[in-house]
């Protein structure tokens, strides 16, 4: 009972403490918020994470560099691609491993597929929460089509473990490029349907416009990244700011909106999906031939020189970073992930819920794109 | 940019060591007493985004190392603007037997949960933090879990009584 220990009631008998989640229909994932409410107005909100704390960062100190791959995927359950990428980037940076040209393209295409599937999942969560069940089912179906692609490529649907230090595990199977294009066309052809049923829908507009509004200044002050920041009009995307993989090889744009509310955030997500699909087409066209993997030392006896590194990439939710320390041994000395949901879910959420209505709690939380396992790690 | 920053730092602060690496990363090691002033200096200088606050248990050196990762939001495109790809890592060591540090919430408000987490997992106290309440863990234990001298087997025995046998591996 965290709430009672820091009791700040004004003495009014109209105030009451409300536990929102983890067993609540409006709550996504294993997360809870302690609300102090008067009527249906929220006076104060306290994020209460920890339901999914598995201590991954500590566990990783006990496993070899290569054994950690199955673990990093599980930090962000919805999008494992960027987690593999960030860990590979950190190991490559510490061990000075080069990645072949083609592997950069394969990585980018794979990461963008993961991003689209993650955004579709987010769209499912948001539309489902607002009561648009049909749209939610479409989004889930389309995500499944991408999972089929990932299954063919990597063998796994959710936890893929495809990106390794030195490149990727395998090249595209025969005819895979065509199947990517075909699948993305299938999904893309439904964008007008999505628009009619959801994005241009009056009910969606009324329900999300002006909800959870934040200014660019506040967003920057509180350390926001990702859609939350881009919905306030700032073009800040790690893929552009500090390009990695093949993101500087093709032309693409960072979608932004100006208003900083839930409506803008969801539209940024939609525009990003469309941009990602176009980017995949361009990457497929520009992709060179060649190897996709540089041999790394025997992973069972692999020692990495002492040092520390901070690497970052743009996951589907914002800036994903990793601070990795090696003491020259076979295992990491310290691992610390900077996950985008951490800032969004713990600081921004508490701030945006102040003064909001109880009916908007789920709305605000999902529009901030919070995924609980990423906070707890 | 890196050279200029280096000169400015050495002129303003005493005993600061600056190293820069190939991948656009600058590491600044600073004495704990000067750390706050240094962070304030960087914030005013354009490093407005605290990406990560981390701690490392350097048990061999009897110290904790606090690590502040700063980047910029690239809103300013002027002459002396901080390039977006530049990463600044500020490190400060504090003694292991007296793990106390000043809170940086007044400079970077998003340090709040990070300090809470480090307090819980490493047992480092942050002066001036408004709520150092537990963030993730269910039960308290004399040795915080992310310290290097935390023994997982010992913890299980102390808390749950025994460790169930699984074959013969590792005794």
Kindly describe this structure:
The complex is a heterodimer of chains A (377) and B (171). Chain A contains 16 helices and eight strands. Chain A is α+β, with helices and mostly antiparallel strands. Chain A has one domain: Cytochrome-c3 Hydrogenase, chain B, CATH 1.10.645. In chain A, the strands form three sheets. In chain A, strands 1-2-3 form a three-stranded antiparallel beta sheet. A three-stranded antiparallel beta sheet of chain A has the order 6-7-8. In chain A, strand 6 and strand 7 form a beta hairpin. Chain A is globular. The N terminus of chain A is likely disordered. By secondary structure, chain B is an alpha/beta fold. Chain B has one domain: NADH:ubiquinone oxidoreductase Nqo5 subunit (Beta Polymerase, domain 2, 2-Layer Sandwich), CATH 3.30.460. Chain B is 26% helix and 26% strand. Chain B has four helices and seven strands; from the N terminus they run αββαββββαβα. In chain B, the strands form two sheets. Chain B has a five-stranded mixed beta sheet with strand order 1-2-5-4-3, with helices on one face. A two-stranded parallel sheet of chain B has the order 6-7. In chain B, strand 6, helix 3 and strand 7 form a beta-alpha-beta unit. At the A-B interface, strand 6, strand 7, strand 8 and helix 14 of A face strand 3 and strand 4 of B.
């Amino acid at each position: 009972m965290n709430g009672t220990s820091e009791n700040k009631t004004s003495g009014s008998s109209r105030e009451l403490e409300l536990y929102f989640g983890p067993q609540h229909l409006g709550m996504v994932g294993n997360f809870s918020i302690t609300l102090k409410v008067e009527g249906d107005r929220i006076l104060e909100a306290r994020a209460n994470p920890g339901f999914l704390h598995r201590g991954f960062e500590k566990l990783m100190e006990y496993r070899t560099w290569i054994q950690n791959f199955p673990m990093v995927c599980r930090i962000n359950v919805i999008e494992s691609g960027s987690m593999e990428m960030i860990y590979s980037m950190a190991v490559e940076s510490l061990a000075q491993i080069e990645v072949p040209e083609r592997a950069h393209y394969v990585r980018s295409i794979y990461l963008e597929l993961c991003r689209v599937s993650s955004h579709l999942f987010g769209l499912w969560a948001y539309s489902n929460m607002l009561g648009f069940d049909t749209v939610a089912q479409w989004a889930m179906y389309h995500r499944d089509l991408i999972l089929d692609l990932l299954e063919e490529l990597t063998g796994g649907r959710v936890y893929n473990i495809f990106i390794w230090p030195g490149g990727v595990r395998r090249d595209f199977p025969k005819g895979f490029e065509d199947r990517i294009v075909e699948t993305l066309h299938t999904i893309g052809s439904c964008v007008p349907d999505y628009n009619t049923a959801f994005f241009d829908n009056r009910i969606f507009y009324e329900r999300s416009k002006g909800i959870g509004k934040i200014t660019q200044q506040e967003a920057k002050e509180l350390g926001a990244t990702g859609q939350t920041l881009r919905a306030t009009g700032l073009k800040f995307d790690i893929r552009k700011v500090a390009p990695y993989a093949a993101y500087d090889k093709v032309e693409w744009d960072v979608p932004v909106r100006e208003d900083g509310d839930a409506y803008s955030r969801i539209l940024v997500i939609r525009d990003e999906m469309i941009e990602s699909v176009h980017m995949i087409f361009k990457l497929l066209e520009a992709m060179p031939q060649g190897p996709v993997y540089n041999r790394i030392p025997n992973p069972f006896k692999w020692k990495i020189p002492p040092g520390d590194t901070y690497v970052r990439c743009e996951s589907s939710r914002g800036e994903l970073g990793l601070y990795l320390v090696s003491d020259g041994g076979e295992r990491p000395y310290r691992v610390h992930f900077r996950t985008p949901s951490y800032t969004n879910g713990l600081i921004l959420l508490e701030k945006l819920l102040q003064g909001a209505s109880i009916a908007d709690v789920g709305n605000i939380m999902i529009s901030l794109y919070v995924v609980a396992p990423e906070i707890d790690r | 940019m890196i050279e200029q920053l280096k000169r400015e730092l050495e002129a303003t602060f005493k005993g600061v060591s600056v190293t820069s690496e190939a991948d656009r990363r600058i590491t600044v090691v600073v004495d704990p007493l000067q750390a706050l002033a240094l962070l304030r200096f960087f914030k005013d200088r354009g490093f407005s985004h605290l990406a990560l606050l981390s701690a490392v248990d350097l048990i061999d050196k009897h110290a904790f190392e606090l690590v502040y990762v700063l980047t910029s939001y690239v809103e300013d495109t002027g002459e002396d603007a901080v390039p977006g790809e530049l990463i600044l890592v500020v490190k400060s060591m504090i003694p292991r037997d007296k793990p106390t540090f000043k809170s940086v919430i007044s400079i970077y408000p998003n340090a709040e949960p990070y300090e809470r987490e480090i307090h819980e997992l490493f047992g480092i106290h942050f002066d001036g933090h408004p709520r150092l309440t537990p963030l993730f863990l269910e039960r308290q234990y004399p040795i915080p879990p992310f310290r290097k001298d935390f023994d997982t087997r010992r913890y299980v025995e102390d808390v749950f009584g025994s460790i169930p046998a699984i074959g013969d591996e590792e005794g």
